[in-house]
Specification:
OB fold (Dihydrolipoamide Acetyltransferase, E2P); extended; 577 residues; 12 strands; 19 helices; 5-stranded mixed beta sheet; 5-stranded mixed beta barrel; disordered C terminus
Length: 577
């Protein structure tokens, strides 16, 4: 209910409490009190106050007796302000002063009144948010927005308004992801890392018997290695039984959700080469080899201590200690095995020996740092993209389709085993929600988030790409890009790039003075590489930092009042280099 026009309060305040009033006025007053539903907001003048009891004068000449909320601040007689109804039972109205929702702006109250909507807290916030977003607040627009707000009562009103303006469908799940992007907590790589950390913890804490533990492990491994080329399995010397070409099986029968392709920027092969050079192509500066092992071999994945502890546990699992493909004649772990090969041997032995193994032995295996590292390596193999792969847009589409399919399969396994409320299930839901949100954004913008694995080191990053499909870039038009990196040694680093044809204007910005001096020293190397690729470059360096907001600086960039329209790309890395 809305009651305004403070101008008549002085007349009402002068009326003595208890003064007889006509029966028509009593009837009108009774109707007004009934309209004061919990949550409604109205304007009144304090005619009388003593303790929790208060009499409020309204603009229509009526007085309302009410009780103040126990936490309400002290009121002063003659004070005019807004009140919110806490409860209205048996003719007794409980109220509290209301200061939020932009009630100081009478435009909000009039707009709601014109649309026939109650002046409650969410509706006032809705109108206020729509005005801030430069949206119309006529009756039809307010009613449409009110339907969206009412259908999503658990979602922040401001989030609903912003998503509606950006033409993003509003659901509680998508709204949660939108707020993650607003708060800069949307990093897909971080969500993947959470999943990688929680998976072995999940297996370790299960209370099922050994057969069920083994089956769950087999199904999860099968999902995580789905689509990877089978690796040749080296049988033990003298082994008579035939090992299957692929030991890990996927027992989960599910149907994958078909997503429209999430493509990278369609800027042509030459631009793809340029972007991969900026990101750090595999053919760029080569890192010295620290050992003779390939990145996916045990010798490169496990440190000495982890390898020794892991080997001790493996020797207790069935007949692994006697398998010459896993341990050599001196009892040392075969460091030439790949992560997937060793996981396959372990899973095969667990399946064969599940009736004779103790639950504690299996859980100890799952809790080992070595086992966790092997799982993480397999997941990174599936989910991280090398910079040189950015030249092939199908790699990005395949990543998201595979990731969404795998998360859906894992979710079904967790529900089938009664683990739908586990931290791993919540992590799975976060990843699926993020992919779904990016898919919705991709209906309007060419936007993807790409987890990167850089050359020669455990350095992973997120790549953001944005263009507006409603305003396609003209052929040979200017392309703008923003690259943000948070690196262990260089600190906060921003790279702003403008590219038109083969002309490239690049500005590096560093928060740290030492990083500024270091990069400035080696910029000629980058200039030489880009020149060799046929680019005409202009490179500058500054020592200042810039914070970029994904929603405000990218999604809203082409909206009215948001500055000059254009095509912007953001490449954001969280890199440990």
């Amino acid at each position: 209910m809305q009651i305004s026009y403070v101008g008549q309060y002085n007349k009402n305040a002068g009326q003595a409490v208890g003064t007889p009033v006509p029966s028509t006025a009593v009837s009108s007053l009774t109707a007004s009190i009934k309209e004061l539903a919990p949550g409604s907001i109205f304007e009144g003048n304090v005619s009388y106050v003593k303790g929790a009891n208060v009499i409020l004068s309204l603009e229509n000449g009526q007085n309302i007796h009410a009780r103040l909320d126990s936490h309400a601040p002290k009121l002063v007689q003659g004070q005019s302000m807004f009140f919110q109804v806490k409860a209205n039972e048996g003719g007794t109205v409980s109220i509290r002063p209301y200061m939020g929702g932009g009630t100081a702006n009478p435009t909000l109250m009039r707009a709601l009144d014109a649309a026939g909507l109650p002046a409650n807290e969410r509706n006032l916030e809705m109108v206020n948010s729509m005005m801030k977003e430069q949206m119309p607040i006529h009756a039809e627009a307010l009613l449409d927005m009110h339907r969206a707000v009412a259908a999503n009562d658990s979602v922040n009103v401001n989030t609903i308004v912003q998503m509606t303006r950006l033409e993003i469908p509003v659901t509680p799940q998508l709204a949660a992801q939108f707020e993650n992007y607003q708060n800069d907590t949307h990093m897909l790589l971080g969500q993947m890392n959470d999943f990688m950390e929680q998976l072995p913890q999940f297996l370790e804490t299960q209370t099922a018997d050994v057969p069920h533990l083994v089956q769950m492990n087999t199904e999860l491994l099968g999902i995580l290695t789905e689509g990877l080329e089978p690796e040749p399995v080296i049988p033990a010397q003298g082994q008579t039984e035939d090992l299957p070409a692929t030991i890990i099986k996927n027992g989960a029968e599910v149907q994958s959700t078909q997503l429209p392709p999430l493509d990278a920027v369609e800027t042509g092969e030459s631009t793809g080469i340029f972007l991969s050079e900026i990101a750090g192509d595999e053919t760029a500066v080569q890192q010295p080899q620290t050992n003779a092992y390939m990145p996916d071999q045990i010798g490169a994945i496990l440190d000495t201590q982890s390898e020794e502890e892991f080997s001790d546990v493996l020797r207790m699992i069935g007949n692994l200690a006697e398998n010459e493909a896993v341990f050599d004649e001196d009892g040392a772990l075969n460091r030439n095995l790949t992560a997937r090969q060793l996981l396959e041997f372990i899973d095969h032995e667990l399946v064969l020996q599940q009736d004779s193994l103790e639950p504690d032995d299996v859980k100890e295996l799952f809790s080992q740092k070595g086992y966790r590292n092997l799982l993480n390596h397999v997941m990174e193999e599936q989910w991280l993209i090398q910079p040189q792969d950015l030249k092939t847009k199908d790699k990005i589409s395949e990543l998201y389709e595979r990731l969404n399919r795998q998360m859906e399969q894992i979710d079904k396994v967790l529900k089938a085993t009664g683990n739908e409320q586990s931290p791993l299930a919540r992590s799975t839901e976060q990843i699926r929600g993020n992919v779904e949100f990016m898919n919705e954004v991709n209906q309007i913008y060419n936007y993807v988030q790409i987890p990167l694995k850089l050359n020669g080191q455990n350095a992973n990053g997120d790549l953001y790409v944005y263009t507006n499909k409603r305003k396609p870039r003209e052929e040979n038009g200017e392309l703008s890009a923003f690259l943000h990196l948070d690196m262990e040694h260089l600190g906060s680093t921003d790279v702003f790039v403008k590219m038109k044809g083969k002309a490239v204007d690049t500005n590096f910005s560093f928060a740290d003075d030492a990083s500024f001096e270091l990069v400035q020293k080696y910029l000629p190397i980058l200039d030489a590489k880009l020149t060799a690729l046929g680019y005409n470059t202009t490179i500058t360096v500054s020592n200042e930092s810039k914070k970029v907001d994904f929603v405000e600086d990218f999604l809203k960039k082409d909206l009215p009042g948001a500055g000059n329209a254009g095509v912007v790309h953001r490449y954001s890395f969280d890199v440990r280099a």
